[in-house]
């Protein structure tokens, strides 16, 4: 019950955030304009490299907000910032509309890497690894839905929805089926303060209380949400 109240309090906080409105984009025009994005994010927004985020099925409102953050310098990235600087508001709306219409690909079950000092895998080691990933996924599922009351880590469900679908009017991103590696890096960046462009710096306040295992667990769980 206390965990549910914690999630509810965070949800109510974000309900007070203003709805973000953007002009509707043209997805057909956006497909042409997104050609330069395919190298990192994939032709249809499903990146092959797990360090680059999938953009397919992402809310246009969030994508526009993110591009504007790169353009204004609110977020800095040696690759994205120069690209965003050359985009007009219409370009951003069109590109975002295109990616929002694409279907995100699913991910296979994460595989935990053995320590470098371990011997080669045998059947028993593989079984143990399978149990470990199941434990991590269970921990991630519980954290996503309930948070961690003892350390005041808020439940992800409050802002990103029960199925990782996000919140389009508030420009909170959809998370389901995102690459685990990208999610882990994102949470680490929020935890360290390297990334802070979110309402009330809420993600930093949450991530800084998370352990490395919790970050990995919830990222793995989100990566297999459909």
UniProtKB/TrEMBL annotation:
Pfam families cross-referenced by the UniProt entry: Cytochrom_C
Keywords: Electron transport, Heme, Iron, Metal-binding, Periplasm, Signal, Transport
Processing and modification events after translation: Binds 2 heme c groups covalently per subunit.
Annotated transmembrane regions: none
Chain sites annotated for binding heme c 2: 156, 159-160, 203
One GO CC term on file: periplasmic space
InterPro entries assigned to the protein according to its UniProt record, in alphabetical order: Cyt_c-like_dom, Cyt_c-like_dom_sf, Cytochrome_c4-like, Cytochrome_c_Oxidase_Subunit
Biased composition (Acidic residues): 115-129
Record localization: Periplasm
Signal keyword on record: yes
Major subcellular location class: periplasm
A single GO molecular function term of this UniProt record: electron transfer activity
Cited PROSITE patterns: CYTC
Start and end residues of each Cytochrome c domain: 25-103, 135-226
Residues reported in the UniProt entry to bind heme c 1: 37, 40-41, 80
Signal peptide, first to last residue: 1-23
Residues covered by region (Disordered): 109-129
Protein name: Cytochrome c4
Source organism of the structure: Methylotuvimicrobium buryatense
